Amino acid sequence: MSSKKSSKLDLLVRVRYSNPLPAPPCPPKLLKIKTEPLRYARPEFLNGLANETPLPMIVDAECGMPLDLGKWECLWEDNGDDLSLNPDPHNLPKLDPRDAALLFDPSSSTGVYATNGSSRAGSSSHASTPLANVTWLRKTEYISREGVQRSAMSEQKHVVSAPVDVSRNAQLRDIEASFAACNENFSLETLQHPNKPNVTAVESFPFLPDADIWANQYDLFRFSERPGDRPIEVDDPRLDCAILRPMKTEHDSFLAFYLTQDDESALSFKETRFGQAPYEVPENEEETTFHFVRDYETVKVEQEVPNEFLLVLSDGDPPITIEDLDLEQKQTRRDKGAYYKNIERKMHLKKKRVNIYDQYDDKWEIIRVLHAPLSAEEETEREEALAEVADPNYLNTREDADADGEVDDIAEENDISGMRPNAAIDIVSES
After folding, report:
1. Region entry Disordered: which residue ranges (predicted)?
2. Phi, psi at residue 381, to the nearest 5°?
3. Which of 17, 93, 385, 422 is most exposed by smallest CB count within 10 Å?
4. How far is residue 276's CA from residue 237's CA, in Å, rounded to a whole number?
5. How far is CA 220 from CA 153, 209, 274, 420, in A?
6. How far apart are CA 191 and CA 194, in angstroms?
């Protein structure tokens, strides 16, 4: 014998159209909430209805208020007295008491009323009256939050801000004082890591700009996967000397990626680069051939990278006799310090799909690279960039240059960075 029970929800109502109800004009019943009858006699009571009611008005060119300019003779005479239009602010005419109500500021009246019927724009005697605390109508977290907000509003903090001296002498004085505080009272034992209390400092380095590479521009490239054709666990020395060349089609801009054919060519190229002094051209150099690998498109480009740097920790050059050094060697010697250089841009790259219909302006399949001396223009540009850290009067001269209307030159986009000192290239185009 089986029994079947069926139930029907008779009170199920499906809401198809939202019909929000307006706030009640009077307090709900069974709640003791003080209601001020005077608020019904104020014009602010009808502000909500007035704002929601469209008023079709057709007015003339003078907006229903004709103005007869013939009553002011100062508008038409040469030496007329304009006190009737522009009264003296220190000797204003007496205001009619009937016009005093026109000086009322409408912005001070919000016209917003709470749902319990109490006016927020009421008289000053009732404005400071707190709302009734009806706990059974609110959740506990709302009650605690409201108490915190009320306590924060009740506390009035009086902060007396002293005038700050921003003159040049005051800035120089404060900078010198900061150096004294860091050098005289500095101790490694007092340093604490912000997140790791067990980590202690063992050595300190002066933080200085790297004058050796300051004239160069460095970009940070991040690939979605490892470039080249080798797996990630296999070492690839060719990646240290790769070439990224800007490319452009009719509707797109991307980067062409070039690598050497074998590891021996890359190692020989790097040995030639780092075996010479900076900006010195090797003699009888053999050209290095770079082959096209694939194209990469830029997913994201960050033009300003304020918190990433190239950092080199140096213990300083070994001590030698000062008499054995000439002036140039004294200037190029390094002291102990942490030398930094800022990163200009940061780019995220991913592989670009091959499209046979793309029309390249100048596609190169092979690039042959040789080092070449800097030209006069490049020498001038390098000296201007290096003056930022080498010239003590750089800021003063730059202010003078900006005042004269000089504009810094923008570097060419087609320069191939990462080669030291400079590179002469031969191109073999696609056949």
Report:
1. 377-407, 412-431
2. -65, -40
3. 17
4. 20
5. 48, 19, 21, 18
6. 9
Of residues 6 and 266, more confidently modeled: 266
Distance, in Å, from the CA atom of 191 to the CA atom of 180, rounded to the nearest integer, reads 17
From first CA to last CA, the distance across the chain in angstroms is 90
Helices vs. strands in the chain: H and E counts, helices first: 8, 10
Distance, in Å, from the CA atom of 254 to the CA atom of 81, rounded to the nearest integer, reads 71
DSSP for 190-215, written as a single string? G---SS-TT--------EEE-TTTTT
DSSP 8-state class, residue 119: B
Does the model's pTM come out above 0.85?
Answer: no
Q: Who wins on pLDDT, 270 or 65?
A: 270
Residue 216 has pLDDT above 70, yes or no: yes
Among the listed residues 40, 227, 209, the one whose alpha carbon sits nearest the alpha carbon of residue 122: 40
The whole-number pLDDT of residue 127 equals: 45
Buried b (16+ CB within 10 A) or exposed e, 241-256: bbbbbebeeeeeebbb
Alpha helices, DSSP H only, in 257-300? 263-274
pLDDT digits (tens, 9 = 90+) for 350-384: 998 887 777 776 888 999 999 888 889 999 999 99
Query: Phi and psi dihedrals of 184, rounded to 5?
Result: -85, -45
CA dist., res. 146 & res. 142, Å (int)? 6
Q: Are 30 and 121 a contacting pair, CB within 8 Å?
A: no
Instruction: Answer whether 238's CB lies under 8 Å from 228's CB.
Output: yes
Cis omega (within 30 of 0) on the bond before 89?
A: no
Q: Which of 419, 255, 217 is nearest to 348 (CA)?
A: 255
Return the domain boundaries, the chain.
Answer: 168-202, 219-318+333-354+362-395
Summarize pLDDT for 61-73 with one digit per residue, the tens: 777 777 888 788 8
CA–CA dist 135, 30 (Å, integer): 15
| pLDDT score for 131 | 53
Q: Using DSSP, state whether 236 is helix, strand or coil.
A: coil
